[in-house]
Amino acid sequence: MKAERARVLLEGLITGFIGYVVVALFYAVWNVLAGRSVFYTAALLGAKLVQGGPEATPVAVTPPAVIAYNGIHLFVFLALGFVAAWLLFEAERYPRFWYPVFFLFIAGFIYSVAAVLVFAAPLAESSFWWSVAGANALAALAMGAYLRHAHPRLWRELREHGDPEAEAAAPHPRGGAGGRR
């Protein structure tokens, strides 16, 4: 049991860190292309945390604001990574659990985009929500790619057997109920 727990924790750490890095790199490129400091978005959102936010004032890129935002950003992604790793571990053990896990991932993506938009609404320009959705979609894809790599057996079973509930309900060729027990 300790090995399983260690695996989930390691996968969660890696998954969360991947999501954090993808979003940070996305906004670094976004800001540079817009002619701003690499840390502009982190400073904008961090100022809201540190000082109550510059609703109408120009954003000053300060270390406390950038560190505050990145600390929370890292914490949130690590938490998401741990939850995602645990859910996939459980789905691997109990294949019927896959469908609720899939919908939890979708709901988590929508919730995370909405939470950022609500938090940043007074600060953001009109195109900000596109960048939030894009950054989070890229992070979700990167995190999912890592988890797919980390759980090849689960993906192979889903690809080969499809719907575990339909398989369990299908008649077995030798009689009786089919599927795994």
Note down, in words, how this protein is organized.
The protein is mostly helical and 181 residues long. The chain has one domain (2-160). It is built from seven helices and no strands. It has helices at residues 2-33, 40-51, 63-93, 98-120, 128-150, 152-161, 164-169. The longest helix has 32 residues, at 2-33. The model has no long low-confidence stretch (mean pLDDT 81).
Secondary-structure blueprint of this entry?
Elements: H1 2-33, H2 40-51, H3 63-93, H4 98-120, H5 128-150, H6 152-161, H7 164-169
Helix pairs in contact: 1-3, 1-5, 2-3, 4-5
Task: Characterize this entry briefly.
With 181 residues, the protein is mainly α. The chain has helices spanning 2-33, 40-51, 63-93, 98-120, 128-150, 152-161, 164-169. The chain has one domain (2-160).
| Helical content class | over 70%
Q: What is the chain-wise order of helices and strands?
A: HHHHHHH
The low-confidence runs, each spanning 5 or more residues with pLDDT under 50, are: none
Strand content: under 5%
**Structural class of the helix and strand makeup?**
mainly alpha
**Cα radius of gyration in angstroms:** 21 Å
Envelope shape: elongated
Number of domains: 1
Structure characteristics:
181 residues; mainly alpha; 7 helices; 0% strand; elongated
